[in-house]
Amino acid sequence: MAGQVFVLQAVLVLLLVLAAVAALVVQARNDSTREARNRSVAVAEGFAGAPGLPAVLAGGDPTARLQPLAEGVRERSGVDFLVVTDTDGIRYTHPKPDRIGKKFVGNIEPALRGEVVTEEIVGTIGPLVQAVVPVRDANGSVVGLVSAGITVENVEGTAGGQFPLLFGASAGALLLSMAGTAVVSRRLLRQTRGLGPGEMTRMYEHHDAVLHAVREGVLIAGADGRLVLANDEARRLLDLPPDAEGRSVADLGLPPPLGGLLASARVAVDEVHMAGERMLAVNQQPVDRYGSPSGSVATFRDTTEMRVLSERAEATGRRLRLLYDVGTGIGTTLDMVRTAEALAQAAVPRLADFVTVDLAEPVLRGEEPAGEAVDMRRVAAAGIREVPSFYARGDLIRFVPSTPQARGYGSGQAVLEADLTDAPGWQAQDPERSRGIMAEGVHSLITAPLQARGIVLGLVNFWRSEKPEPFDEDDLSLAEELVARAAVAVDNARRYTREHTMAAALQRSLLPRALPEQDALDVAYRYLPAHSGVGGDWFDVIPLSGARVALVVGDVVGHGLHAAATMGRLRTAVHNFSALDLPPDEIIGHLDELVSRSDQEGDGEHGTPDGTHGMMGATCLYAIYDPASRRCVMARAGHPPPAVVRPDGAVEFPDTPVSAPLGLGAPPYESAEIELAEGSRLVLYTDGLVEDRARDIDTGLDLLAQALTGAGRSPEETCDAVTGAMLAGRPRDDVALLVARTRALADDQTASWEVPSEPAAVSAVREEVARRLADWGLEETVFTTELILSELVTNAIRHATGPVRVRLLRVERSLICEVSDTSSTSPHLRRAATTDEGGRGLFLVAQLSERWGTRYTGCGKVIWAEQPLPPV
Prior knowledge:
six-stranded mixed sheet; elongated
């Protein structure tokens, strides 16, 4: 096809050149004739109008005078002849003298009438153009004629010189056109991919058939915004008029969003637009990027049939997302109220406009509800706005039997009230409140029971107001699924609440309810349970003999009932071991042995009978403070070190040996002894105070030191300062804090004597003791004290070896008598028979004193007896 176009264009150019040459020849001939006429007329008129010519014609022998003049003019003007004749046409002049005197050949009649005559004739010198002009005298009469003529050949010689240029220009034009044709043909060949006219025609027909047969609308608009092409599907989808093509897209009456898109020619990918009742997916791209003229092409797909399926799929997707969010959002806490709030917030507004959650009153206490009629407590509510007519959070509700809530709670099945205006059973609960709720636009209700393990724990109410359509069966099934998932979390929280309540009650019963009275320390304490539940931290203040006081802080690993029970066992063991008046390292050793033995008993296949496995690990710090010597002896098993606040406010952590936690079997344990100035504060605590996930123990100890720094604080003020600085929120682990400010016995509150190992020395000791008691103003205790000391000193002299020492301690509430010796033999209280001569001394001591006992020292033992003093 490209070759044919090339040949056709070359022939056309050649024909145009030939036509141009022919036209030029014809034009040249016409121009020659016109030029000959004009020149002959001009020469003849010029000669005829010469002055004196009429006089020459009227005189004699005009030829002689005119012939030279005529020849001169002819030669200068370039005409072929210049002839002067009389009025009869007889020549006076001629280029050929032999023609003078002969008759002029031509039409002279018009000239005799005064007209100028031009004519084309074939004369003796060939085809020529001649002009005849009259010669007039002064009166205007024609007195002669002048004729000038020129052959056409002489005139055409001038035009003939243009033909070489014409032919050269034509040849150049022909070459240029052929070169352009070759370029166009090559491009056309490339664009048509070598297809011939027939193939191109068939391809166009096929493309046209496909364009109008596809089930996708195609619309092409030009750069000026006018419609260039629209296939049949586009006309159908857009309802275009028959004369749409050629009109502006803005004038086609399309919906504004769609019309604006097509008129803007911006790029669009699968944009959804409505065209009447149809939902169209529109794609639009500019066409100039593909080498086409400026404009845009848009395609349309009818997705109306997919809209319903899409809406159903979206609704299903929303339901699944809601179920997923509820499944992941609730159950993350073991708090029933927070679980209910999470459910209500997740369902608004995706399922309902308002959601309220009511739990049975026993459930909030961790119990299982019994019976069909129970009181409900509103624990959570969420909505798109506030509705004052709803029951408020915390309100106690008892639903009447006709309400859907009561029916749902009794049957365990969800109840749908599609139209609340036609629900007298619901309105019977509180007619005035019901009218207020409906006045807020609430018109539909689903109430679903929170049911787990066959037990109904409460109710979830879904209310709709904004959407005009009521709840349907799909909404009912979704609500049931949501509530079923939430019910498991609520039941877990309820069971946890029950266990937590039991553990908390057990822990409260095991922890000290009040601190015992003693005279050595001013004590304050704080116990903060963990955020996650009850733990095993404990503390104790245990009065000992000799006005001494034991301070204990411990921490059992884990939380819950087992941790609380383990804590109780350890605390009881500490009290029992303290009654033996053992040193701290021995008490820690006995506790470690107890925990290890318990673990061994629980290492069987099924553990202990209650299903647990041993006593669990624990840490402990045990300290004994003696106000007489102001010395404190302490030992610790895996526990954080104590802190000491000096009277000047400086804080230090004494270097006390630390051993492995209890139960790891790492004896012997070591103890450390420090001296405390009067007014010092000894701070004992568990690791929950100084260590958590956000900081390590070193950082916690630094913060604790900063909180403790400062003089003049009481133990209570110290506790407040520490908890305020270290525990901004509820701790993740239990925290036990014990702050004890030391006291010291003055020199006048103690008295001691060395007693020789002779029975006679007893009376001297009694006299010294009586005088000292009189000095203390305790005369009423002299007799009792003498009896107690006589028995104790006599026994020591009789049964012990080495020196005997007597010490009296006068404290605020008691008088303490101590007798020490170097023997390790402990006396035992026994009931003497009637016939026994002895054995009644310790019985008398036990009867006369409030407490008595024996404690061992590094060089022997001390037998002590404590008498109460009357209040001052």
